[in-house]
Known about the structure:
CATH class of chain A: Mainly Alpha
Order of helices and strands of chain B: EEEHEEHEHHHEHEHEEHH
Distance between the termini of chain B: 35 Å
Radius of gyration of chain A: 21 Å
Largest interface: A-C, 36 and 39 residues
Helix content of chain B: 25-40%
Structural class of chain B: alpha/beta
CATH architecture of chain A: Orthogonal Bundle
Number of helices of chain B: 9
Shape of chain A: elongated
Structural class of chain A: mainly alpha
Shape of chain B: globular
Largest sheet of chain A: none
CATH superfamily of chain A: MetI-like
Oligomer: heterotrimer
Helix content of chain A: over 70%
Amino acid sequence: MFNNFDFSVILPSLPYIWEGLMFSFRLTVTAMLGGIIIGTLLALARLSGGKTLGFAAKTYVDLMRSVPLLMMILWFFLLAPFFIKITPETSALITFTLFQAAFYSEIMRAGIQSIPRGQINASFAIGMTYWQTMGYVILPQAFRNMIPVLLTQTFILFQDTSLVYAIGATDLLKAADNTGKLYGRTVEMLIFVSLIYFVICFSLSMFVKYMNKRIAIIR
Amino acid sequence: MIQIQNVSKWYGNFQVLTDCSTHIAKGEVVVVCGPSGSGKSTLIKCVNGLEPVQQGKIIVNGTQVNDPATDLPKLRSHVGMVFQHFELFPHMSIIQNLAIGQTKVLGRSADEAHERGMKLLDRVGIKMHANKFPGELSGGQQQRVAIARALSMDPICMLFDEPTSALDPEMISEVLDVMVDLANEGMTMMVVTHEMGFARKVAHRVVFMDHGQIVEDAPKEDFFGKPHSDRAQQFLSKILNH
Amino acid sequence: MALNYKWNWGVFFETIPSGDVTYLTWILHGLGWTVAISLCAWVIALALGSIIGTLRTVPHRGIALIGHAWVEFFRNVPILLQLFIWFFVVPELLPRDLSMWVKQDMPAKEFITAVLALGLFTSARVAEQVRAGIQSLSRGQRSAGLALGFTQAQTYRYVLLPMAFRIIIPPLTSEFMNAFKNSGVAYAVGVWELVFVSRQMVEETGGQVIESLIVPTVLYIICSYAANLLMSVIERRSHVPGFIVAK
C-alpha cells in the first residue's frame, strides 16, 4: 500500500516544518492570552449592567460567534492593506486574538455567573470595591473553575490555526504543504503533519482530562 | 448606631418591605425573627447597602446608607456581616480569608493582618486550622471563621443573617457560644435568627416581622411574656412547641 | 475609511468574467453549496455520532474502546487537514482501479469529499455530546430500566436516549453551528461555496474587498440566526415539565 511512498523527504524538511510549528504555537499562545484578557473585559462589560456598554459587548461577541473564522481571516487580511503594511503572520495574530476574545468571553461570563451571589455580598460586606471584589474574589474562582473549558477552547484554537493557510501565513500545515510541493511529495508530508497534529492535540486533550479530575477534587 | 426609618422596598411590583422603622443603640443586641419570606433577611441586607431601598432612610453611625453620595465600601468596612451560607472565599486559606479585607481594604501590612487574624482565630477556636481551606472545615467551624473574618475589620457593629440555619443541629451551639461572648462584651448586634434561646439569653429587644412589615418591636421580656399581635403569638407557639 | 478605496455597490449586478450570471447569482449559488455541504455533513455526523456516543457508554470494555478510538481519531487533527487527507491521501491508498476512478471519473468528487470529511470530523464531536448527555443522567435511571425487565438496548431506547437527547439540544445546536461555519474549508479543494466565491470575487472585481465579503458574511449571520431559532423551537417542543435543562 505504501509502496510508492517516499518518506525520506521528511528529514530535509524538518527545519522548515519546525519553523511552521513554532508559528502555530506562537499564534495559539498569543490568541489565548490576548483572548482571555480581552474576553474577560468583554464579560465584565456584559455583566456590568451598563446598557450601552453591555449591548456593545454582546453585539461584538454575537457577531464574532456567527461568522466563520475563515471569513474573519479574509476580512482582516484583505482590508488591512488599505491602512497599513502587514504580513500574513501579523494579520493572523491580530485576527485570532480578536476572534478568540469572543469565545473566551462567553466562557468567562459563564464562570463568573457560576459563582454564588453570596460571594459578592460577602466581599462587599467587608468593604471591598467592585474592582477589588472582581480581582480578589470572583475572577480567581471563575478562572479556576473554568480552566478545563478554557483549555478545551485552546484545543480548538490550536486546530483552527491551520486556517491561516487561506492567507498564506506559514504555519505547521502550510510549511508541510510547501515542502510537499517542493519535493513533489504532498501525500507523505500530509501524513507526517497529521501525526504531529495528532500527537499534540491528543496530549492536550489528555491534559484537559487530567485538569478536569483535579479541579473536581478541589471542589 | 443603626436607624431604620420608614423603609419600603419593591422587587418590580412586588413589595418586600413596607414602612419598616426601628433602631439599634450602641451596645444593644436586637434579634429579628419571623416566618420565612417575611422580609427579615432583606431588611438586614439593606442596613449595609447590599440591597437598595426605594423609600425611607437607613442611617448607620451617622451616615445615610441609601444616599448616592455615600462611600459604601468605606461604610461596610466597619460594619461586620455574617451570612447564612458562610461565604468564605473557597480559593483562599482560612488565614488568607481573614487577611484579605485587612490588607486590601484597611491597608494593613501583611504581618499585622496575619497577627490580628491569628488572634481572632484563636478566639473562635480555629487557630490550628489556619492554613486549611474552607472546604476542609465543618459548617460550624466555617461559620466561626466567618465571624472572625468580620471581626478582623474591627467593626463598630455586627449584622448576622440567619447564621445558624444552614448548620447541622450539633454545630449550632458552637456558633451561638461565640455570638453570646460577643454580645456580653458589649458589641452592637442585629441578628436575624430563629434561635429563641439565644434571644432569651442575650437580646435586649426582639423585632418580629411578617409580610414585609415590622409587626412587633418590644423589649425581650415583653415579647416572650405577652406579645401583642396574634401573628407573633402564633409564630412563637409554633417555634417553641418542639 | 482609507482614502484609496473606491466603493462600487453596483458590482453585484455586473456579470462575472467567465459566464453570463451576475455576481449576486454567483453568491447565491455559493450559499446553496454551503448549505448543502453543512446539511449533508450534519446528517452523517448526527447518525454516526449518536451511535458512537452511545457505544461509549455501553458496559462492555471492547465496544466502549472502539467508540473511544473513533472519537480520538477524528477530533485530534484539524478539519482542513482531514479534508486534504481525504482528498489527496486516501485515493492513493485505494486499490489501483478504484484509485484511478476516484482520481479521474468520480462525479462531484470535491463535494462528496468535503461532506465526508466534515461529517466524520463533526461525528466525533457529536459523539462526545451524546456520551456526556447519557452520563449526566442519574445512575438510577439505567437501574430502573433494567429493573423493569428491559434489555440494555430497550433501556437505551426507552429510558436513557430520550432524556439524553433533550438535555443535549443546546450543545448539539452549537455543534451544528460549528459544522456550518467549518464548511468554509471546502473552498480549499475547490467547492464553489461562500468562502470560495468571496475570494474569487475579490480577485475578479479587482479588489472590491468590502462588497465581496459583506454579502457572504451577512448570509452566514442570517443562517446562524435561523438555525438558532429553529433549535430553540425544537427545544421548547421537547421540553419535559419539571426538568430544568442546562442553558
